[in-house]
Amino acid sequence: MNKKNHFFSPKKLSLAIASALVSMAAIANDNNPEPILVQATKPAANTPFSTAVTPTDIAAQRAATSDTASLLRDIPGVSLYGAGGVSSLPAIHGLADDRLRIKVDGMDLLSSCPNHMNSPLSYLDPSQVETLKVYAGITPVSVGGDSIGGTIIAETAAPEFAAPGQGHLLKGRVGAFYRSNNNARGGNLTATYATEMLNITYSGATTQADNYTAGGDFKTTTATGRPGHTLPLDEVGSTAYKANNHALNLALKHDNHLFEVKYSFQDIPYEGFPNQRMDMLDNTAHRINLHYLGEFGWGSLDARAYRETVTHFMNFGDDKQFWYGDAPGMPMHTESKNTGGVVKANIKLTAQDLLRVGGEYQRYQLDDWWPASGTGMMMAPNTFWNINDGQRDRTALFGEWESRINPAWTTLLGVRYERVKTDAGPVQGYSMMYAADANTFNARNRERTDNNWDATALARYTADATRTVEFGYAMKTRSPNLYERYSWSRIGMALEMNNFLGDGNGYLGDPDLKPEKAHTLSATFDWHAPDRAWEFKATPYYSHVTDYIDARRCGSGTGMMAPCGGVANNTGGNKFVHLQYANQSARLYGIDLSGHMPLGKTGAGDLGLKGLLNYTNGENRDTGDDLYNIMPLNAKLTLTQKRGSWDNGVELVMVKAKNNISDVRNEIKTPGYSLVNLRGSYTWKQARVDFGVENLFDKRYYLPTGGAYTGQGTTMSFNAIPWGIAVPGMGRSLYTGLSYAF
């Protein structure tokens, strides 16, 4: 990979402040009173149909991953689409990416890339995450919107303030980790200075890794297309990465009012993608997040405004061929501006009834252009405009009534309206070869306005201290993203660069795509001990999606320049193909099972057992084809052992063979597998050490939702790289991490 480094003045400022805070912390008084924690958000207590990843859960996983999305791996119903080392795309019940609403500290973040390399959760390092909350399918309208699969809410630590009479509060945490397989290493620092009214907190993290190796040879060639550079048969190309994240937060508290200003900065000099034809060679993001929270006699008021700018650059990394004739790679640039605001109020109608009302606004602007490369007509002499002046504006209003009818029953009813307006400016290709498609696109009206409605009805019934059931119905709507509507060229090379699904294929947009609308029924049956020493949960679900955005083959004509590869593209199997996004009908159903129980107290400590099982089935009702990237039946069993400060576990991960595949995409089947992982930790008063071994027996396996392997070679030449190789998982890896709180 191109290991270039950048040094920005915001980083200098952040590091200077952090250094000052660490120096001040050295004189902190350990006998200070307990500090005051102010929650920056006020979620409803025991909100139905949500599952949280707690700070304790997150702390136990940080040493093993640099990918924040992977912190969700033990949430029932959640799987991960493979991507770069810090950029996995979470899926809930088979619905992923833009079908989920992902909020980071209250901000709606979007991928600004034709390959969706800069996914929303990639803007947080795991060390910066305090809590994660997942709403699967049945999402309250107050946290849903413009999504059909669910909502993921990521929060950094809420500000803490000194207790009355304490004077000031000085605290922080420093940590480091190492993982053996890909030589991953990194460190993180959090430092806080606070008085009774003021909080200043810095958090920063850096992480870096080389390519990882699989548990055995998985390919038949070592060639990369670069003279003198080869990859061993077990090395997974384009999996190296480096990422830096910094945040500086200022919070002021007065009585029942909290005001926050947070500045965040990200610099990713390089991140390889083994299931994309390009690599990310720079991603720089700046975010300003303003937040107000006020508590009143009638309830609470929560207001937020934010601004994000992203500059993103792609080209071929070190493991992919760079020169094509006299063309030095294929530079691709993306810039976006994301401006949003939200105002919401929790109004206490009675002691049992709470009304939530609010409004939201988001303006998203995107430019995606590819400068000329070389002298041939394929990539010269002009700049190729993939999306010019793209706009996606959302305006939303919602109302939600939560009622605690009696100690046994809680209900929640909500309605949400969203107006989504999209548009894009005129485009051009590299040369006259692209003129016909560009002229057709430019001549048509491209502005679209969608009027979307969501509705949710939830209920929780507590039969007694050991039995609870939650059930509900939701109607959810999502408008197409800018790439789904406005990717315009039918010439192969341009199609192949528009792909955020990781299947190696090429995609064409359609301005006339309609919004997806999902109708979902779900229930959670919860049996547990009164103190939850043991519990077992079962969640069956069913979703019917009208105007589901799937794909169809798009070839016509014959010859080298035939649209979408010509008529041969329509019937070809066992190769990469060209497709166009299309509205069709889909059905998904499945069940999640989870639980834990004690096994007994022994001389070796307290033994316990945890388990998780997920099953999802997805089908295109128009074609009978299976939906793409559906995780097959999978389960995890963990034997836990706790003794004093020790907390250890042995995991058995089991995944069934993936045989239900999307034929229209020539999706790749994967065999079943089982893995054994060992995890342990030891905790002192102010420090903890985590360690473990993943894939203990160095098993070779393939990721069912990892996509097609395109991590090396002549990736710009469509079928010049082998078809049929799924991205393999990582071989044996030892990891350790150390953190110290001061």
Structure keywords:
mainly beta; Maltoporin, Chain A; five-stranded mixed beta sheet; 5 helices; 22-stranded antiparallel β-barrel; 742 residues; single chain; globular; 37 strands; disordered N terminus
Number of helices: 5
**What composes the largest sheet?**
22 strands, antiparallel, barrel
For the record, the CATH architecture stands as: Beta Barrel
Low-confidence runs of at least 5 consecutive residues: 1-33, 40-46
CA-atom Rg in angstroms = 25 Å
CATH classification, class level = Mainly Beta
The percent of residues in helical segments reads under 10%
> DSSP strand (E) fraction?
over 45%
Instruction: Give the total of domains.
Output: 1
Gross morphology is globular
> Can you tell me the CATH superfamily?
TonB-dependent receptor, beta-barrel domain
Looking at CATH, which topology would you report? Maltoporin, Chain A
Output mean pLDDT: 94
Structural class: mainly beta
Write down how many β-strands occur, each being a DSSP E stretch of 2 or more residues. Answer: 37
N/C terminus separation: 37 Å
Summarize the structure in words.
With 742 residues, the protein is mainly beta. It has one domain: Maltoporin, Chain A. It is built from 5 helices and 37 strands. The strands form 6 sheets. The protein has a 22-stranded antiparallel beta barrel. A 5-stranded mixed beta sheet has the order 2-8-9-6-7. A 3-stranded antiparallel beta sheet has the order 3-4-5, with no helix packed on it. β35 and β36 form a beta hairpin. The two termini are 37 Å apart. The N terminus is likely disordered.
